[in-house]
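Supplementary material to the annual report.
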Amino acid sequence: MGYTATIGLLLAILCGCNPKSDDVQILVAAGRSFAKEHRYAEAQTAYEKALALDSLNAEPHYELGNLNARLGRLDAAAQAYAAAVTADPAHDNAKHNLAVVEADRGRLPQAVELLEQLPGYTPALRTLGLFYNKQGRYDLAETTLRAALQAGDEHLEARQQLGQLYIRQGRYAEARAELQRALALDSTHTESRRLLGLLHLSERRYGEALTAFSQTIELDPYLIEAHYNLASALSALKREEEAQAALQHFEKLSAHAAQIARLRRLLDAQPDHLATHIELAYHYRQLENDEAALTHYRSALDAHPNDLQVLLQLSGFLLELGAENEALTLCRRGIAQHPEDARISALYFNQGYVHMQNERYAEARTAFEQVVKWDPNSAKAWNNLGNVQLALGETDAARQALIAAVAADSSIAEAHYNLGSLFLQDRQLQQARQAYLASIAADSTFIRAYYALATVYKSQGAMAEASKAYQFFIDKWQGDPNSLRQARQQLAQLPKP
Amino acid sequence: MYAAILLGLLLLACSSNEKSAAPPSPSAAQPETVAPSIHFVEVAATVGLSWRHENGLSDKRHFPETMGGGGAFLDYDSDGDLDVYAINGAFIDASPQAPRPVNALYRNDSGRFALVDAGLGHPGLGMGLAAADYDADGDLDIYLTNFGANALYRNDGEHFSEIGESTGVADARWGTSCAFADYDRDGDLDLYVANYVEYDPSEANADQLPYMAASQSYGDEIPPGYPHPDNFRGQADLLFRNDGDAGFSDVSQLSGIADEGGKGLGVVVADYDDDGWPDIYVANDAVRNFLYHNKQNGSFAERAAIAGVAYGQDGQMEAGMGVDWGDYNGDGVFDLTVTNFQAEPNSLYRGEEGFFANATFAANIGLPSLPLLGFGTQFFDPDLDGDLDLFVANGHVLDNVLEIDQSTNYGQRNLLFRNDGGLRPEQVRFTDISALAGPGLQLARVSRGSATGDYDNDGDPDLLVFNSGQLLSLLRNDREDDHHWITIRLNGADRNPHGIGARLTATSGTVVQMRELRGSRSYLSQSQLRICLGLGSQPQLDSIEVRWPSGRIERFGPFAANQTITLNESHGINAEISPP
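Predicted assembly:
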């Protein structure tokens, strides 16, 4: 169901129309769509509305349980799943999920008891295998996982779990067989590959372990434990320097993971706590887990729809992800809700950036003018304003904006560069050269400035310097190949020293 | 919590059209193929050790209540048998006028124990201890760690005098395990003290996350419980250099061990890299562990991560509690064990020339330890077959754990792993024989510290287990084999009379055993300062090489089995007593 359809449906129901009994199913479907879009409050409303229509229907209870479990509200989840089971004693999914939530609430024996009532339900067997493992009933865990595999199609996680169990029991040949079967099902399955590495490590085949861990990290660069495993293999191979590097990377990732764990615990106590959600999103972004970061930003926004900090961060993040329209919507909301708060300059900046990228220069100019009004020291905003003014042919205004940019921050290489380009356009070669040199001084990795500088040198007849600058550009440029080709042509045309 | 929820989410079912399966059939417990000869019997009350630890349990659930305590097997009166010292807790909120629990010293009188007053009735909120003859006057002195000021009791013969303040070691941080060792090899014994966290009782219950929240969800309502160490800042450990008559100097900063990132609970000293200089391992709670490599110039380099002993197998920070070194696979290189929290396996790190391979699961101590919460631990050889077995004392930290997790319990049974050998060092495996090792191993108590020692001088090591808020356990080793043994005492030169840190390499037939003499091991506890060597069926010990702490190497032997001998540095052998 599309976004618009979902909204329309829910609005129709919430606005007091008189739904028919089959609206329950429609509401449940709408709730699922909302949940999928991380719009949890709306999802909950849909399910509750469905239950208001038919409290004996298991499905809304079940979905409410899923929603609460997803949000970490375990007591509420358990209650909803139990209600679903009461409404429909044959609802295996609800029973299974109730068991999972019970286990998460520390009631493992009850969870096991529930799952043992589902001998014909393959997902329950897989979960039961895990729970037996947790209880230290390893024989039962093995039997149950085997039963799951015999009952259903090949299941990768069950193979992986068996592989892990066998490694832990020192049954290496069986472990290898299971993990290889898991990888035959999906060669990109990171955990199976990592476990295979651990198996090699246990058998002192350190070279093979290193290969397996390296492959795992290639598949998932943010799998923290794989970095530690890699360091272990390198240490075992006496490659201490590389091991130290791997450890440092591991510890950096671990630090974010530890913060996430800490913050998740805080969230248990206060599920709608704004700062916690925002901090969590930050750490997830550091781990490049964009989906989790988005979830927390959206949860924060659900709980605090007009909070400026959330609007600022989420709009910026959405821009990074390329979701420009949603970002613009949030920017507009923030500006409308907080017209007197100086922090909205960042929202204007985001607006201006999107417009600029989409060549809507007039709108971009308006937005960047707002930014510098609120924050006259924003060198980036002055630079972008200068850029859009250039695009609009407002050369004098652009020059003033770029001068303001370098005045606000002399280390902004882009502004020096843009200013240089203006000077070059006006054939003010000396000023252009100085501007390009200032750009390079501000950021020696700003490579395009070397090409521009070479152009100025050439115009000034300083061929040796031009040649050197072109060559540097050619050596370092990693952008579009046209620029590279042009630089080579220019260099070829210069007289040989 | 995060992991738990994540697991839950991954498991949540999304479809119901799976094929059916036959129900799993229950299977019987895996049978033991070899009956153990080890048989431990609880005899504490029978031999006069009816001592109950007071943990000071209160409604406020002050953190120190659940972390203590330890104790020792030690020969305080130098009469040749092992006495017992037990460390007590205290009521943090008790009025100053209220009677305070005190530590207890029991003298061993031919296998029966009598409570004695030798000035050691220390009233602090006790944690751990280390015993050594720091002043080299021929008797054992005792250093006590507390939640509060630590204390040093000098043994003056009939009586002990408290001199912590005057010698500069009465630190007031939350001290836990500690150890005497000659880290600078100047001949006398220095002192390492692990410190735990900054805990302020006046802030108890003030938004502190309960202990298990990191690994277990509670649902929406969190029952009251002891706080998790994450709530508190760690405290840097301490290293005191022995300056002879001038007392001790705090060289923690100078030596590079003052890391406030640690939350130390267990300490053990050994020369893990066999360079002749003692190194220090610290088990930290919920943060990475430390391995201080002795740089031979009065300072240490922390190398736990690169050596592979800072974390669990996948880099996870675990709740390190008790620790011990031991060469369990007989390859001449020290291995290391660390006990951890419930759902974290106790760790076994196999030494491989500067690097440690994680052998936790490969050696089969991982799975049996997962459901339990480990504290004390030690390698020892209770069946006297010439290889090191492993003991683990367990008990939960939460008195109300059943309200949170019904898969476990406050009181837990302890673990005994028998070393079953292996064709190659990396193939050596253990078997959990706890269920078959006698009634002493069936007790489910809230165990903390543990110590080994041959209190009845019959040649095999017995176990002393300190239980939080409960009677202490003395597990007498009534082994059912005819294995031979030899007990070795050391008499060192210089100012280290017991030879703490001496390395022994003993050969009997084709079996070579390597040991280092240390009392401080396990958790908050001190084991005997002598070495029980099992000889299996060998009728004699062919030879012993001793590398004394001074660096001197001497060779002794052969010796007939089943006797206690004293090896004197530079002066040869005393064969002392015959077996009973």
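Confidence is low (pLDDT under 50) at residues 1-11, 13-33, 214-219, 576-580 of chain B.
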